[in-house]
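Fold it.
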Amino acid sequence: MWTPSWRRRPPRRRVAEADGRAASPVAAGSDRLVYLALGCALAVRLAAMAIFPLTDTTEARYGEIARLMLETGHWIVPPFDYGVPFWGKPPLSFWLQAGSYGLFGVNEFAGRLPSLLASVGVLACLYAFARAFWNRRVALWATVICATSAVVYVNAGAILTDPFLAFGTTLSMVALPMAVRTPRSAWGYAFFLGLAVGLLAKGPVALVLVGGPVGLWTILKTQWRAVWRALPWVRGAFLTALLTLPWYLLAESQSPGFLEYFIVGEHWKRFTEAGWQGDLYGSAHRRVLGTIWLYWLGAAFPWALVALWRLVPGALNKAARRAMAVAAADTWTAYLLCWALFPMIFFSFAGNILWTYVLPALPAFAVLLAVSLADGPAMENRLRWLLTGSALIASVGLAGFVATARIDPSLVKTQKYLVQAYDDQRHGPAPLVYIQDRPFSARFYTRGQARTSTVKELAAYLAKGSTGTEMVAVPNYLKANIEKLLPAPPDIRFTSRRYTLYGLGPAPAPQ
């Protein structure tokens, strides 16, 4: 009996040794090597999460916001500082990080753990999708490709909002084809749950990053009926609204002006105005239009190079171009292409971007690359070594960076070591004072106790002979100005590439 195209189960792609049952001992051993290298990369990632300090500006800022949320109990509008609301991002990542602090203590590992779990969620969705539409081996390869891409590996252990947006968009983008494949299943609701995660992690941009590629694919492949029947549109939209709208309304009621700044400022002006001057919490990241493609090369490293190695020679060969066109015409390959390319095209027109904006596109890229490399035993064996090598590169690179930072802490943009020097040498309860600026990592590692002052205020303080402040942290560009005010010779307690800690009170007793 004839079945409408939208109800047909898509054929499962088969490659050599697709389900692993016919795998040779050599192939099985190579797979074990891939697992071993991936386990090594995970172990290094976990160790770095605990050892490496929070760095300024972004990670320390978000880590401090989550710490303040836990301390102050301001769970609706995240606090930027005591009494200062943060309108820049929704609260999902801060909720999870603050909850992790509550469970495991306020430390680097606890703050970073939710990002790792969100990244694992991305990989789980990716594996389920590739396993269902291709096979187990392609699913494994795609998962390793995604996991060892530079931006995924780095951000999986960082306090950021982007891993949560990536999880939300990936869940939605995976849920749609899974719902088409299995109508009236829980995947239909998972699509709308992913939208809710994105809306609470980053905002309305999640709707664009899901709706854009889905809409483009629906038009190109005329899949209107399949998409309409696969998803519970009314109940699903209600679920998304139920999970997100209450927070948006409560945030505006508690902090009037939030919606205008967040919707108009963060989602329109930041996108359209390069170097947007209205940023309340830092500076916009002005970039030349199209820079996102250069960021992709770094974000998808080393797999961007593998993709170019496969794509460029093929583009120069007529038969290969014809084969690629035939492959692109496949319904689900076209879906992956829309998913992988739409975020890149969208952010090509953004005036302010970061390399993390590539994250939503990488899961689809990973599947496309895995499928393209599954074209015979010789390439499969070569791919296993590429997978193993990428995992080892990621783990060795991160381990080397962390070790270097431990040997020379001044290489790291953090105030952790200065704060430790202050704690070790202070004699009383006087707060640590920063001249001109107080970095976010200083706020985090002093648990919000660091204070700020100016050169003029310090001069007046010293002229009065006051002794309430033991030490001041001075930006190195102001050292000459400050040393003119201090008793000679200057009492330097700690120095780094960015700051110098001066003692104003008695020197510490010799050990």
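The first helix runs from residue 25 to 51.
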